[in-house]
């Protein structure tokens, strides 16, 4: 446990400058939105900037995970530590998740401030904000899982001179094969019907916000969107499999 705490502290310490810089970028971009809203006398412009900053977070988790993996590759820690691959990768994922949650909460706060400045806001999209944050978290975890898998497979293949120079082609082939097979299987009518009619939840009315020359407009759609859960379960199982494979490969002390 003490070793894991030490690893967490090291990962926080080596990545904190990057994260502080990211938070500074958020503040600067949002300040530009406030300035533009004041200049054009459109109080909805900062809301648009807050939404834009939220969308950027879809790529946040894989980017920061990759930056930490790249830094570790320079130090060759994998070759000299007695810690398992599971411990090494879990620490980086946990640090990245903490950063993501803090950053999302900051954007949520900026969104709250933006909405509070609107003259006649009749609906606060609290539920939609929670759903959005969960979506960012799940998609970020999914992308990070594939990133870690490709990173470990790529460096594992470096031990074999015959394929070392074509590793990217092999990885691209693996991704194309996986997406092609899953697309074909899910396009089969029995599979499609099973997925779309098993474990389906109805999403509540969704909030919309528009900004135009006539000012801002907001409200919520009355349509209910059915959301099948099986694709999410499948992606969760795949994520677990990819993470286990990545840990096993890392335990072989790959050289990066």
Automatic annotation (TrEMBL):
Protein name: Uncharacterized protein
UniProtKB keywords: Membrane, Transmembrane, Transmembrane helix
Residue spans crossing the bilayer: 20-40, 46-69, 93-118, 130-154, 166-188, 232-250
Recorded superkingdom: Bacteria
């Amino acid at each position: 446990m003490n070793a894991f705490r030490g690893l967490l502290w090291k990962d926080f310490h080596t990545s904190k400058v990057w994260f502080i810089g990211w938070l500074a970028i958020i503040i600067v971009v949002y300040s530009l939105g406030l300035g533009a809203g004041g200049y054009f006398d459109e109080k909805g412009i900062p809301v648009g900037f807050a939404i834009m900053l939220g969308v950027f977070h879809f790529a946040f988790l894989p980017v920061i995970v990759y930056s930490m993996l790249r830094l570790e590759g320079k130090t060759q820690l994998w070759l000299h530590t007695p810690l398992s691959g599971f411990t090494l990768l879990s620490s980086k994922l946990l640090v990245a998740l903490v950063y993501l949650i803090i950053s999302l909460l900051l954007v949520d706060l900026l969104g709250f401030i933006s909405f509070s400045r609107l003259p006649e806001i009749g609906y606060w999209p609290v539920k939609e904000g929670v759903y959005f944050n969960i979506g960012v978290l799940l998609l970020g975890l999914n992308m990070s899982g594939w990133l870690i898998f490709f990173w470990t497979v790529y460096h594992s293949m470096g031990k074999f001179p015959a394929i070392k120079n074509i590793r990217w082609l092999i990885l691209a082939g693996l991704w194309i094969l996986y997406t092609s097979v899953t697309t074909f299987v899910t396009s089969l009518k029995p599979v499609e019907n099973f997925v779309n009619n098993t474990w389906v939840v109805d999403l509540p009315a969704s909030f919309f916000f528009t900004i135009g020359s006539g000012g801002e407009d907001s409200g919520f759609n009355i349509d209910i969107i059915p959301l099948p859960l099986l694709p999410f379960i499948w992606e969760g199982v795949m994520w677990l499999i990819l993470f286990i494979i990545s840990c096993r490969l890392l335990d072989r002390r790959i050289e990066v």
